[in-house]
C-alpha cells in the first residue's frame, strides 16, 4: 500500500473551504468569539504571534488561553496564500463545524424567537443577521437557499457568533409549531405589534423580499416604519430592529 503524503498547511486550508465538517476562520475577532463559545480549533496560524498576543490583551483579556501558544507561526508569504484576502489582524484558523439539530432548535419551548432568513443572497448580510441574533438573544438562525451561513465571509461579518447560537440550514420553510411572523413591508407596524412567544421571525431576500408562499402561510405580518421615500431597510438591520423590539419588551 502506498502511504499518502501529509497534506501541506496550504492544502489543509484550501481543502477546509470545501469540507462541510469544518469551517475556516479569517481574523482575530471571529476567532475570539469562536473560542469564547467553545469552538474546537484544529489549526491556528499566524505570521506574527506576538502581534496576536497584543490583540488578545487589548480585545479579549477575559480569554486566559494565550492565542500565541495555540498559533503555529508561518511565513508572511505562506499566510498570504491561505485566504483570497489576507485578514488584516494576522490570524486564521480551521475549526470543527458544530452539528446543529434543526428539529431540536424549532421545538425548543423557551419563549424566545428563532430568526428565519429566506434565501438571502449576500454572505455579509447573513453574518450580520447572525451577529444581531446572538446579541439580542434569539434562540437561533435558520437559513434557506444555497448560501452557507458558515462560509468565511459570513463568519467574518458575523464575527464568529455562529458559534454562540445554533445556525442551521433548511432546504425550505421548516414545518414547526412556532407562530410564523412575516417581517415585511406593508404589515402591521411597530411599535404596536406584540411579538408572540416562540415566534419564527421570517425575513426576505434582499431584492424581492419574502416569497408569496411564505406570506400566504404566515400567522402575522409586521413592518418597521420608515420615513417617506425610503424603500426598505437592509436585511440584517431589519433583523436587529425586530429582535431589539422583542428584547426590550422583555425588560421588567
Ligand atoms: C432589503 S429588504 C427587501 C426589499 C424588497 N424590495 C421588498 O419589497 O420586500 C430585505 C428584507 O428586510 C426586511 N425589511 C426591510 N425593511 C423592512 C421594513 N421597513 N419593514 C419590514 N421588513 C423590512 C424584510 O424581511 C425584507 O424582506
Structure description:
34% of the residues lie in helices and 19% in strands. By secondary structure, it is of the alpha/beta class. It folds into 2 domains: 9-96, 60s Ribosomal Protein L30, Chain: A, CATH 3.30.1330.30; 102-250, 3-Layer(aba) Sandwich (Alpha/beta knot). The strands form 2 sheets. Strands 7-6-5-9-8-10 form a 6-stranded parallel β-sheet. The protein has a 4-stranded mixed β-sheet with strand order 1-4-2-3. The longest helix is centred in the C-terminal third of the chain and has 16 residues, at 235-250. It is elongated. The chain binds S-adenosylmethionine. S-adenosylmethionine binds at residues 183-185, 203-204, 206, 208-210, 223-224, 226, 232-233, 235, 238.
Instruction: Sketch the major β-sheet.
Output: 6 strands, parallel
- Tell me how many strands there are: 10
CATH class label of the largest domain: Alpha Beta
- How much beta, percentage-wise? 15-25%
CATH superfamily of the largest domain: SPOUT methyltransferase, trefoil knot domain
Low-confidence stretches: none
Bound molecules: S-adenosylmethionine
Helix vs. strand class = alpha/beta
In the CATH scheme, what's the topology name of the largest domain? Alpha/beta knot
Number of domains: 2
Radius of gyration: 20 Å
Amino acid at each position: 500500500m502506498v502511504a499518502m503524503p501529509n497534506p501541506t498547511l496550504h492544502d489543509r486550508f484550501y481543502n477546509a473551504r470545501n469540507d462541510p465538517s469544518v469551517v475556516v476562520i479569517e481574523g482575530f475577532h471571529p476567532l475570539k468569539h469562536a473560542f469564547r463559545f467553545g469552538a474546537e480549533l484544529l489549526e491556528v496560524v499566524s505570521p506574527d504571534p506576538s502581534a496576536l498576543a497584543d490583540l488578545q490583551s487589548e480585545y479579549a483579556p477575559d480569554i486566559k488561553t494565550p492565542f500565541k501558544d495555540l498559533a503555529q507561526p508561518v511565513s508572511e508569504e505562506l499566510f498570504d496564500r491561505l485566504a483570497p484576502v489576507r485578514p488584516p489582524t494576522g490570524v486564521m484558523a480551521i475549526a470543527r463545524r458544530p452539528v446543529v439539530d434543526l428539529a431540536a432548535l424549532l421545538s425548543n419551548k423557551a419563549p424566545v424567537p428563532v430568526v428565519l432568513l429566506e434565501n438571502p443572497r449576500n454572505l455579509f448580510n447573513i453574518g450580520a443577521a447572525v451577529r444581531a441574533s446572538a446579541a439580542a438573544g434569539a434562540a437561533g438562525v435558520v437559513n434557506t437557499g444555497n448560501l452557507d451561513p458558515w462560509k468565511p465571509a459570513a463568519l467574518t461579518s458575523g464575527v464568529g457568533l455562529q458559534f454562540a447560537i445554533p445556525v442551521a440550514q433548511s432546504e425550505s420553510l421548516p414545518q414547526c409549531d412556532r407562530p410564523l411572523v412575516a417581517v415585511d413591508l406593508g404589515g402591521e407596524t411597530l411599535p404596536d405589534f406584540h411579538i408572540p412567544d416562540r415566534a419564527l421571525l421570517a425575513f426576505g431576500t434582499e431584492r424581492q423580499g419574502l416569497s408569496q408562499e411564505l406570506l400566504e402561510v404566515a400567522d402575522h405580518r409586521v413592518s418597521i416604519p420608515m420615513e417617506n421615500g425610503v424603500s426598505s431597510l437592509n436585511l440584517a438591520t431589519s433583523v436587529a430592529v425586530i429582535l431589539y423590539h422583542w428584547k426590550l419588551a422583555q425588560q421588567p
